[in-house]
């Protein structure tokens, strides 16, 4: 079995490589020219250097491949210009279309595509499943949904089968997103939250995401299906913050701001935004986002591809904290 993977060097890619390294498969990794595999993977995998939009690169990448894990793409980023917005579609949509075309030509059997719950366009007070309506708001989420549609229609046009995995917030080593920022603020003892902290969020550790991807790649019933994948349980903000504090080995705990006070501050922020030409740090939308639940069902993945999480919240957060200590040179 020959496996190829785009986006192999990131937070989601490296745990997948760890599993594939133990599997005995022949593995190819597509890397941008400036990227390098970690030392533990050197000489273990074939490296193809190039861009997802390069037809020649994709021909080499897809040649003799059975399954492709497609993780590469332009991720969360606030576009500063029309060019920045178009870049999401050039990389995430056009690049995916070119990958599918090369995969079809090379008779690849299946592509597993890593997507996001951002396609639903919801930030709070929402519980979603695979049948929930998708109304993406950001350029990132819109481009991901378009790429999903290409993946799921691939086999109808003689291309490989497609599987779409939608992930919520991911945590683990190499995370550059909100969890890493939260850990930093807890480390500095400046993190706080609104209300009692009992609102819930769905999340997933990078190891659990890799486990789901392997299941999706080899389960026949996964063909041309979409799956929401989480840790299999939801966490209150208090539970998540406590896991971070334990991993940091601190007795300090984040302080609370009464929700009524936060809402009042949000209303004041709304008023300021009506008279100034920039976004205020705190407004009603941000208060709602930071004090509302956002959860997703993982039942379809559990039942149809027999996905079971292999890592607990505390284990995953501990791994991320250990990585951040090395990255930030924390004592």
Commentary on this structure:
There is one protein chain. The chain has a domain at 2-173 and 203-232 and 295-311: NAD(P)-binding Rossmann-like Domain (Rossmann fold). It is 41% helix and 18% strand. The protein contains eleven helices and 14 strands. A seven-stranded parallel beta sheet has the order 3-2-1-4-5-7-11, sandwiched between helices. Strands 8-10-12 form a three-stranded mixed beta sheet. α3 (82-105) links the parallel β4 and β5. α7 (237-247) crosses α11. The chain is globular, with a radius of gyration of 20 Å. The protein starts with a strand and ends with a helix.
Q: Would you tell me which CATH topology of one domain applies?
A: Rossmann fold
- The side-by-side strand order for the widest beta sheet comes to 3-2-1-4-5-7-11
The number of distinct β-strands equals: 14
Number of helices: 11
- In CATH, what is the class of one domain? Alpha Beta
Low-confidence segments: none
Helix content: 40-55%
Pfam families: Epimerase (PF01370)
Protein name: NAD dependent epimerase/dehydratase
InterPro entries: Epimerase_deHydtase, Lipid_A_modif_metabolic_enz, NAD(P)-bd_dom_sf
Organism: Desulfosarcina ovata subsp. sediminis
